[in-house]
């Protein structure tokens, strides 16, 4: 991990003025000056000025100014599969700032049977060291009345408006259909959104046992035990349950055509279903698992696995058409000694890969530079859409008066080569190793402070803030209409 720290002046100015930038929002681009004070954007206009004493001035002529990235799917210091993810809330969010991501939404994952309020408290404590802003989804890993009640407390008092369900990881954190139905119904009642990791955990378990019985113990067994059909089935099941329970649904890490088709069908029928894709699934294919170097193959073990190349085109098409709305990383780092615990049994390799530092760069390079995405669509899929879906827009995901001053200054002509030797992520591997990207952030601004500039990072431990996310209104007409759709008329029968 690269370890340079620098300071930008000692005055601690409360104002920051960015002049002559091309502001790129999800809906339009225009040239203007942006004035920030105390962490908020207070003015956007022409010929704005401040005196030297009032704060810093950046001339961004010829550069783009975009909302800071929102990564809606990370796992900092996650205890998982017998170990703990190696990037903690400080190192991981700091690496995110270097890559232009200024907000993460991480996951509280209670152990089955654990009080979910207690788990939420543990994660809140861990996250106090964050260098960027953060928020939490909460996973529902078991069910009884106390969980239902705690969901209400989290939603009403702790700014949690999204509940996560792992349909895989049997005998650990898997949510079966009973949990899904109960939790989805409760979330609907509260005005929250549900999210799912869609893989059929029963099938994965059976296929893993089959692979091991056939003597396939290496990482190549990982994708073989988690084929796309397993993801497609779970995606479809979650979508149907969400429809019956009248709750909006967000599918994390959509990796293949099968689950994408389920999302597309549901959206075409009017259901509120959203899909996320990981930068990794857009760019890395399943050949990595057949690499003769077991450490290389194991470093790529994550779920769902990287897919045969043809799936990537479907994922890109869906991002372009809007059937997938967000991009994330599922940032969950494990170093080689942790991965090698499963060298003789792929089912024991901790699942997870990194990417928070590289998401924006690889998406710009492979999305915008190739003509697949406009610069405005880039903003939509890296920040604005996630902020909207999880109800923190326009506080996050927009450059407008009143929004948080979280921004990146982007040089579309500057290049960077991605490498584990220079990245800031606390992991000894990079799935994008050696990739040269054109178009990178040269400055990151978080809460009105310059936290990264030209390769130097200055982001204090603990400077990040928790972002509470309000519930969605439950009295909307659309929701009412959807409830009526599923209601059954009572039949009056005569007693004979
Ligand atoms: O392999 C992964 N994705 N690890 C993190 C946990 C999850 O499933 O999101
Ligand atoms: Zn997952
Ligand atoms: Zn995840």
Q: Based on CA inertia axes, which overall geometry fits?
A: globular
By CATH's scheme, which homologous superfamily of the domain at 69-389 applies?
Metal-dependent hydrolases
- Strand percentage lies at 15-25%
State the helicity in percent bands.
Answer: 25-40%
Biggest sheet, in brief? 9 strands, mixed
What gyration radius follows from the Cα positions, in whole Å?
23 Å
The total count of helices amounts to 15
Q: Estimate the mean pLDDT confidence.
A: 95
Report the CATH topology name of the domain at 69-389: TIM Barrel
Secondary-structure arrangement, i.e. CATH architecture of the domain at 69-389:
Alpha-Beta Barrel
Q: Assign the CATH class of the domain at 69-389.
A: Alpha Beta
Secondary structure class reads alpha/beta
What's the number of extended β-strand segments?
19
